[in-house]
Amino acid sequence: MKLTFWGAARQVTGSMFLLELEDGYTILIDCGTDLDKQKVERDKLLGHYSLFPFEPSQINLVLLTHAHIDHSGNLPNLIREGYEGQILCTTATLPLADLLLRDAAALNAKRVKELQSEPAGKKKKTSKKKFRHNPLELYLEKQVHETTDRFVTIGFNQKFKVSKTISVTFIPTGHLLGAANIVLDIEENGVKKSIGFSGDVGRKNYPLLPDPQRMPQVDYLVCESTYGGRRHADKDAPEEALAKIIKETCIDQPGRLIIPAFSVGRTQALLFVLNKLYTEEGLPPIKVFSDSPLALASTRVYEKNIGLLNKEAKEFYEEHEELFDFDNLTYVQDMKQSKAIANYNEPCIIISSSGMISGGRVEHHVMTNLPNPYATILLVGFAAEGTLGNKLLKGMRSLSISKDKEIPIMATIKSIDVFSGHGDLDDLTDFVEYQSNDKLKTIFLVHGELESMESFKSHLHYRGYTDIQIPKWGDEFEL
User: Fold this and answer.
1) Nearest Cα to Cα of residue 471 among 89, 50, 11, 117
2) What contacts 127, CB < 8 A, 6 or more positions away?
3) Rg (CA), the chain
């Protein structure tokens, strides 16, 4: 069989791996949106009208590790381009992926409207500046509905027979509700082989989610390496870290705390920890605004899947009957309410998306409060190069918004990583080292920046693993 890497190769986004068996049966593992700048160059090689480097109609099966858009976001395009098969995922992944894909489709609809309203002579230039992908990638809600109709859900740890010679198992990995590592067991020409795909490896003791489970022994392992070159810096429990910052920013100094956070996963972890602080730790009644309709919808999905959460969350729910709702919490519904928060003069906490401050309602909250010395902006996750979150973390002193206007940054900028959903070097090492050198033939490192991959490769070499590959985009390997 042959494994080809069509995404997350020497980059973080766009997970997409193609497994082709000798009898012609073809499996695609993940089909994520590629946000990397290298994609523009690859599109030139493929041709302007090529959305995929393979023929989607020839794919027999798609497996989805979890709902995040860098793993699921290209599925509507795959179906629009001719894929006719099923998409296998876990029970919680389906509703979260539906929410995220519909949110992407809504943004696409706005972009299509912008493109249609642009003067013909300016379309090409403006499109390149504002949206660097092929305009044909702008799927709409109709395509999302067609996509989710293809989803078939499989329970965790249930070996599902695809055919007489192929079975698939989804193994809990933390990181996000419903997220899984995938193991494919395949018999080919009388020889049995197993291939493991890590998806995104979660971390231990994360709010709401169970610890990642061990993956059984496999012959080949495709392993993410987002944090393969570093360890999480914060050692405090999430409750301790967040309570300390709230005390500094909203109690000792009566100000406002703005937390950019992704709507799916990160916001639920924050709300659960805040609920614990208010309910069990006696945190003063500081107003909390959760400003994201997508976050509210995602929170309701978490509430419907309490059986998939960790022991702590289940016990808290049994005692208090609520995981996320508490007296001081307000879910903000519309833009009018969102903008009105600027007029709230008491200390408060604002949680809004996006987590990198690269779009979404949080941009308004951040821009409004950058000149406010009584405001604190708390980054709780990775912020990619070029985003406002990344620039703030690097210590920029002012922000130019036009030739004639510059905003001084008087707000305090902080960051913590206790809410990062990705496992760090120690978590990834533990994940890989469960695999025996006697059985494991090759490790493929994906879903990380090249520097992180090379560091993790050296780390694993030191621990006795010899055949470690860092595939480039389009690299194929015989297994």
Assistant:
1) 11
2) 115, 118, 135
3) 23
Per-residue pLDDT of 459-475, as tens digits, reads 999 999 999 999 999 99
Contacts of 290 (CB under 8 A, 6+ apart): 267, 271, 296, 329, 330, 331, 332, 351, 352
pLDDT at 160 over 50: yes
pLDDT digits (tens, 9 = 90+) for 251-267: 999 999 999 999 999 99
What are the structure tokens assigned to 60, written together?
């027999």
Tens digit of pLDDT for each residue in 201-240? 999 999 999 999 999 999 999 999 999 999 999 888 999 9
Q: How far is CA 56 from CA 51, 62, 215, 288, in A?
A: 10, 10, 29, 46
pTM for the full predicted model: 0.93
At 36, the amino acid letter reads D
